[in-house]
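Researcher: I'm preparing a figure for a lab meeting and need a structural model of a single chain. I don't have an experimental structure, so a prediction will have to do for now. The sequence is pasted below. Please return the structure as tokens so I can convert it later.
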Amino acid sequence: MLNRRDFLKLVGVGGAGAAAGFALGEKSKNPSAELIPYLVPPEDIIPGVANWYTSVCAQCSAGCGIIVRVMEGRAKKIEGNPLHPINKGKLCARGQASLQALYNPDRIKNPLKRKGERGKGEFQEITWEQGIAMLSENLSSLRNNKRETEKLYLLTSSIRGHLNSFLENFIKAYGSSNYLQYELFQHENLLLANNIAFGQDTLPYYDIENTKFLLSLGADFLNTWVSPVNYSQGYGHMRQGRPGIRGKVVQIEPRLSLTGANADEWVPIKPGTEGLLALGMAYAILEQGYYKGRDAQEWKNILNKYHPKDVAVLTEVDERRIRALAKEFAVNKPSLAIGGENVASYENGASQLIAVNILNHLAGNIGKNGGVISNPKGASLSNRRGAIKKITAFAKDASNGKIKTLILYNANPVFTTPKTMKIEDAINNIPFIVSLSGSMDESTAMADLILPTHTPLEDWGDDFAEPSVGYSIATVMQPAVSPVFNTRNAGDIFIDVAEKIGGAIKKEVPWNSFDAFLKDSWKKIYDKNKGIVIQETTFDEFWDNLLAKGWWRLPDISSLKPGHISTKGINVYLQKEPSKFDGDDKNYPFYLCLYPHSGYLDGRGANLPWLQEMPDPMTSVVWGVWVEMNPKTAQGMGIKNGDMVSVESPYGNINIPAYLYPGIRPDTVSIPIGQGHRLYGRYAADRGVNPIEILPFKVDPRSGAIPLNSTRVKITARRDAPGNMVKMEGSTREFGRKIVETVTPDEFSKMGMEG
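Model: Understood. Here is the structure written out token by token.
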């Protein structure tokens, strides 16, 4: 029991050391460690009154604007920024859960130095001065020999904005060209397809909001694809936002996704043939005379091998349905076709997505409201594609001893690449590894030195959304709270290293802090556009307004709009046959389709308990992973819901509970990505399996993308292992309780409710 004297002592300590939020710039304490009554509140803090800070969500690459509710120096709630054009005040569950990334008990709280065997996770705490000295000494030693500077590699997650340009400048000044960005879902095939078709190396704006007929080939845009919050709002407007007009959605995919469940029609196509279906529809549009362009005969000559009758055999979609879809798509204007991650994840994904672009072209959807709208490049420093070298080249260089020092920043290639790629062995061959990460994931555990970085809620930065909404948008990230632990901004770490090394690097990085660099960079944008698109009289006024609003529309420096797709040379990019899957159909009878989990995406959200607790929207499974099987297929194999099965590809096997799912083809099984971490904190470690481990090592030679849907598997019941699947759903049967009331059409008519 706590007596009055001890309570007053505790209050005294808490009151004296309490954080006053970001305004005071003081380090806050662990909220669970102290009582903070604020009887005499610090300056600028009013107990019980919330402050709101604008920022940008970093849980995926969509670039949604957020506002963070802060009380007594602690972030309490995150909502969408109602002024932001990407998400318009809405926010998905991943964005809401990013609050738990800030206060996660398993965050790395201080700099660490490896003391045990690499990869075992044995570290000792050191000071920041010691950590910066270790990194600086290593880079100085490497730089003493000019031939060695190219042996420094920087591997980061996908970064846009001024941090990206800052890191580019640092690496260039050091003397290396090896700056690589890698994530599992970088939309390389979609970017390549758009570049080939439109000559633009950017993602366009898919105007779902204003379309009348939406044809989605494997795009789960209501859940995880590209910019799901923006697309979900567009979907709602398409359905109910226009009086008298209700857009139609047709979803084409082997496995029923959340988007498929909300569509008017779901077409369970054979895996790997989606592009062929698009080309078959394109031919039908030409054959029926719906395309009036001068080059109609040229297109017909190119596409004559994709007759709907032949395509029907390959896709297992009836010819009449192909023709009916083609007619609806061509007649109901504006229409829109989109190709999603499921299609992009085949080894010929770019070719299939080009077929989708051709379909849009022949229907007249390019550059039209309700169709595909160009996103012009804005006047930013960060429209770089983000990968000087691909992850495969990095692995090869590491294996061949060409990398002496590796700096990782929020990247986890050990988890997100197939075992057959042997990325862990390649990284282990690097003499010195530094990780700038706030979490002990599989890649960070291999580091010799860990310098923990802020979470986005503690950090300065900005982001240039891609895709945007038809014009360029910049969103500013500002600290909503003071750092919870002894972490730093990634840019500040490089600034400290530049100070230690000196010379040309220090000259290239003259700022004392990254926030000073950020503000200086925006000052240049202000000076360039003052009086043109910026009306504020002083930069300070502009900066304050920017932080308050959270985003700014950049002046467009490119007005190029995609329109006509030329027939010249396009034939070489067309899909010639169904996608290939490793493994013969006799020994491996099932196609394996992987997809990003609604909460974890590529695994980054698995350390947040809110996301672990959130039921999957299609299966209601929580805290785990599963393989989806058609019930008739499972019944024939004696497999019941929740039974443990072995999923084996030619490259490995995993044990996983089965979920009997009517919304999947009998010849296909599907597994969500995101679980199976060996490390990554108490909420993620040793939970489920990682299906990426049993994939072949394949890379698209043109885009560098890793095809996730590229192997076949066999399923074997594991009678020796109990199932461990937890789900929140009840039974789909009513057991005579009449939970759902039904009426016949005649009864409904008599009720006078028709129309």
